[in-house]
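Repro:
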Amino acid sequence: MGSPDELRARARDLFTNWRASDAPLPRQLALALRNRARALARGCCGHPGQPGC
């Protein structure tokens, strides 16, 4: 997985990306679900800056 510092940084990025998005809430939820599923399968969602990434 990673060190505790890496996990904190990833969690911080996830929430920062969520707050910075100007997409409507349903779109943010869809992006977050898609990006988390991709990240679980590949290790990275490939969409930095989007909700859930």
